[in-house]
Specification:
By secondary structure, the chain is of the alpha+beta class. The protein is built from 15 helices and 27 strands. The N terminus is likely disordered. It binds the ligand Nc1nc2c(c(=O)[nH]1)N[C@H]1C(S)=C(S)[C@@H](COP(=O)(O)O)O[C@H]1N2 and molybdenum atom. The site of the ligand Nc1nc2c(c(=O)[nH]1)N[C@H]1C(S)=C(S)[C@@H](COP(=O)(O)O)O[C@H]1N2 has 19 residues, from strand 8 and strand 13. Pfam families: Cyt-b5, Mo-co_dimer, Oxidored_molyb.
């Protein structure tokens, strides 16, 4: 109550409207600015879908190439290619064609040629070719390929291959190891238009100047949609998210506030100290041998997931995440509880209320380290499954995901799962970290950056039930002639509450149909809607009929307005709109997720 009063006192009633002007840039320059340097300007256009940058890249027909490049059986993909109505022989895509020539970069005085007389292109030139309009180029080893014709041959659908447009296909092939590259290469070869400058070795030339604190950041998978470069933040494209209940490590979203610290695994020590403990210094080896190993299948989601929808209502400060700042992995490590008990912490120590985590990452300007805390009840709970993880899906943690050791707090917002864990502190008080005290909190829609009282709201721990549509991608045009559309996505709730139901609408929420819940990932409770320990998301899918014209040439709605909402095991559901939960930092957006797609006859 006192919190509400406090907020009420500082706010003139007139400011309590969502129709206020956008917060101006000066007002945004608040405490978090140091850690949000890289954040990209928003796409706060008023039209639905304005923020969906990558979606428009997905031209019709890409699915075929995806099939060819990603399918387990390239032979089958070739067959598919052969039976396509109106498909041209691949020879039409050779560089001789007028189309390919006209789209070539402006002729340089002396175009460099490779040993076969083919033009040599730089990576920058290749990167300009990401859409059918600009021609779609990809590279494989030192080859440059114009695959535009191939992409356009297919009649439609969202696809994965255009994610590689303008760059190398190799990281995508590595993601889907099941396909045999030699045969897929045969499909690719006729589309070769030239060679890459410096050959395959050019890829290694990336390392930048020494003064840059981000210079030693690791390479990232090109499928990640970057939301900022320094620090790096990137999300998983929807089509890849919905494809697998376990998110492959390489495309798991990355949320870094600071430069990636490189921690030597051999000399690594975890310090455990604070109220009611005797200090421990544990090497990675000691952690692995002195404590029992556990695997926990858990979803991690950033509090800012789906923030871009908030910015469409009124600008918020933060990374413009779409629905991909979420992922699910099987985390391997030791229980935090076991380590705390080994440090002598007593379960009924009245002085210990919070467990703090501190990372090795440090703000190069202020020296501040990343930190967060969780309540003691969660930290010590046997069923709470809080893990000190050194493995992600059976692999050692990568540099971006917190090597060599990170915290995984299942059912709790991502910010508390501290990466590159340096220190654990038992304490009577919450962490004083910026990210615990002055960020990752939500307020009334009327609170702005002038009036915000950070002490007035609790730090986000368990997030509310949420869900999102991952496929079809925004920008996809639906065809009534197809009769139906298949919609896929995820649903997840905080606190280990399982998903009992997911409702999907194709008319903006006027009518609903329950989606089919897909089998939970390995290690998660196998029944849907578990009351506890349901740390992992539920993927779902549904095929819905598309509106049909009444008689030939009859009228059709211009769009199909998809919406999704989920229900968790406490029968919590989601609010229908973003406006009522808008908050200045753009966190915990769990409104119905809506995707409007144009409908053609
Ligand atoms: N040390 C440290 N831990 C951190 C962060 C960070 O910047 N530094 N980011 C946090 C946030 S906000 C999120 S959402 C998750 C993201 O984990 P991921 O990058 O492995 O997906 O890590 C959390 N742990
Ligand atoms: Mo986050």
């Amino acid at each position: 109550m006192s919190r509400l009063k406090r907020a009420g006192r500082v706010l003139p009633a007139a400011s309590c409207t969502l129709l206020e002007e956008l917060i101006n840039a000066d007002k945004l320059a608040l405490p978090c600015i140091a850690v949000e340097r890289g954040f990209q300007s928003s796409s706060s256009g008023s039209t639905a879908g304005a923020g969906w940058r990558s979606a428009s890249l997905l031209g019709a027909g890409a699915a075929l190439l995806a099939a060819a490049l990603l399918s387990p059986s390239p032979a089958a993909a070739k067959k598919e290619l052969a039976i396509l109505p109106g498909s041209k022989p691949p020879a039409s895509a050779l560089p001789k064609t007028a189309a390919a020539e006209s789209a070539a970069p402006p002729k340089q005085p002396q175009q460099q040629k490779d040993d076969k007389g083919r033009p040599i292109y730089t990576r920058e030139e290749v990167a300009k070719h990401k859409t059918p309009k600009d021609r779609v180029w990809v590279t494989y080893k030192d080859g440059v390929y114009d695959i535009t014709e191939f992409v356009e041959m297919h009649p439609g659908g969202a696809s994965k291959i255009l994610l590689a447009a303008g760059g190398s296909v190799e990281p995508f092939w590595a993601l889907y190891q099941q396909h045999r590259k030699a045969e897929v290469l045969q499909i690719l070869e006729p589309y070769r238009i030239g060679s890459l400058e410096g050959g395959a070795a050019a890829a290694a030339e990336a390392a930048a100047a020494g003064a840059d604190p981000y210079a030693s950041d690791p390479a990232r998978h090109p499928a990640l949609i970057p939301r900022s470069q320094r620090p790096f933040n990137g999300e998983t494209p929807g089509s890849l998210l919905a494809a697998n209940p376990i998110t492959p490590n390489d495309i798991f979203y990355i949320r870094n506030h600071l430069p990636v610290p490189h921690v030597d695994e051999k000399s690594y020590k975890l310090k455990v100290e604070g109220e009611g403990t005797r200090t421990l210094d544990l090497s990675l080896e000691e952690l692995k041998t002195r404590f029992r190993k556990h695997n926990v299948t858990a979803t991690v989601q950033c509090s800012g997931n789906r923030r871009n929808e908030m910015s469409r209502i009124k600008q918020v400060k933060g990374l413009e995440w779409d629905q991909g700042a979420i992922g699910t992995a099987v985390w391997g490590g030791v229980r935090l509880r076991d380590v705390l008990l080994a440090a002598g912490l007593s379960e009924d120590d009245p002085l210990v209320r919070h467990i703090h985590f501190e990372g090795f990452d440090r703000d190069p300007a202020s020296g501040e380290v990343y930190g967060a805390s969780i309540p003691i009840r969660k930290a010590l709970s046997y069923g709470g499954d809080v893990l000190l993880a050194y493995e992600m899906n059976g692999q050692p943690l990568s540099a971006d995901h917190g090597a060599p050791l990170r915290v995984i707090v299942p059912g709790v917002t991502g910010a508390r799962s501290v990466k590159w864990l340096r220190r654990i502190v038992a304490s009577p008080a919450e962490s004083g970290s910026h990210w615990q005290q002055r960020d990752y909190k939500s307020f009334s829609p009327c609170v702005d950056w002038d009036s915000v009282d950070w002490g007035a709201a609790p730090a986000i721990q368990e997030p509310p039930v949420t869900s999102a549509i991952c496929e079809p991608a925004p920008g996809t045009t639906l065809s009534a002639a197809d009769g139906e559309v298949t919609v896929r996505g995820y649903a997840w709730s905080g606190g280990g509450r399982g998903i009992v139901r997911v409702d999907v609408s194709a008319d903006g929420g006027a009518s609903w149909r329950p989606a089919r819940l897909l089998p939970p990932p390995p290690g998660a409770p196998q029944e849907h809607g578990a009351y506890a320990g349901a740390w992992a998301w539920t993927l779902w899918e549904i095929t819905l009929p598309l509106p049909q014209p009444q008689g030939p040439g009859g009228p059709l709605p211009a769009t199909v307005d998809l919406a999704v909402k989920a229900v968790d095991s406490s029968y919590n559901s989601q609010p229908d709109s973003v406006a009522g939960i808008w908050n200045l930092r753009g966190v915990v957006n769990n409104a119905w997720h809506r995707v409007s797609l144009p409908l053609e006859p």
